[in-house]
Amino acid sequence: MRKTVIAGNWKMNMTPAKTAEFIKALAPMVAGKDKCDIVLCVPAIDIPAAVEAAKGTNIKIGAENVHFKASGAYTGEISAEMLTEAGVEYVVIGHSERRQYFAETDQTVNLRTLAALNAGLKAIVCVGETLEQRELGYTETLLKFQTKMALTNVTAEQMKNVIIAYEPVWAIGTGVTATADQADEGNGYVRAAVAEMFGAEVAEATTVQYGGSMNDGNAAELLAKVNVDGGLIGGASLKTDKFTAIVDAANA
Ligand code: 13P
């Protein structure tokens, strides 16, 4: 059985003070809802406040990016060791916003994934097609390519610490959710790519999330799909009641 993981991706939202306030409010709302892992991926500056506030709760803390070098002259970057020492357990890698605005490529996604895994972090690797790529009929090809590029040189053993998030770019922050069937199909392509690389057993054990306008109203239908093993949630992860409702859908 693969683990359902409900993860928030706060993007560039929340200050340290608001982070502490949010997690203290959220913790009793999600306490004991252990049919899924609950993760909040927060801006780097919010990590100490988040880790402190989440102590003794079932909320785990993630980062939104990691550099692939261990240390050195990389102004503005953060290493995997810095994250683990700060108490971070997960890290989002290759989000489409980083691909679009910060020159992230399939190669750097792969390097970041390897650095995260080698440091003992759990990697939430994001893949997804644009609307143009979908309309051209390239969704399957693209999802498989991005998945395989991201996982190059990852070992079958390390796959235990890999989560893949299928996030169709056209569904992110737009209010347009993929239909449950589209999400299931996209996640299925990702799982097929994992199977082609690592075999069916590893593919069956790999958590594949859906992300893109997942909210309290559509989570249950999306999570009911066989290939949807959780969600990576942007906007709805900034509201305790909406995020809790998604956790509830995963616990139903
Ligand atoms: P929204 O849920 O705001 O569409 O964002 C999805 C996302 O990009 C999560 O990483």
Strand order of the largest sheet: 1-2-3-4-5-6-7-8
Which ligands does the model contain, each kind named once?
Answer: 1,3-dihydroxyacetonephosphate
Strand portion: 15-25%
Going by CATH, the architecture would be Alpha-Beta Barrel
Spans of at least 5 consecutive residues with low confidence: none
Overall average residue pLDDT: 97
Helix and strand pattern: EHEHEHEHHEHHEHHEHEH
Structural class by helix and strand composition: alpha/beta
Number of strands: 8
Shape: globular
**CATH homology superfamily:** Aldolase class I
Give the fraction of residues assigned to helices.
40-55%
Number of helices: 11
The CATH topology corresponds to TIM Barrel
Q: Provide the domain count.
A: 1
Major beta-sheet overview? 8 strands, parallel, barrel
Structure description:
By secondary structure, the chain is an alpha/beta fold. It has a single domain, classed as Alpha-Beta Barrel (TIM Barrel), CATH 3.20.20. It has 11 helices and 8 strands. The protein has helices at 16-30, 47-54, 80-85, 96-101, 106-118, 131-135, 139-150, 180-198, 200-205, 219-223, 240-251, and strands spanning 4-9, 36-41, 59-63, 90-93, 122-127, 162-166, 207-211, 230-233. Helix 10 links the parallel strand 7 (207-211) and strand 8 (230-233). Helix 7 (139-150) crosses helix 8. The longest helix has 19 residues, at 180-198. The chain is globular and about 45 Å long. 1,3-dihydroxyacetonephosphate binds at residues 9, 95, 167, 172-173, 211-214, 232-236.
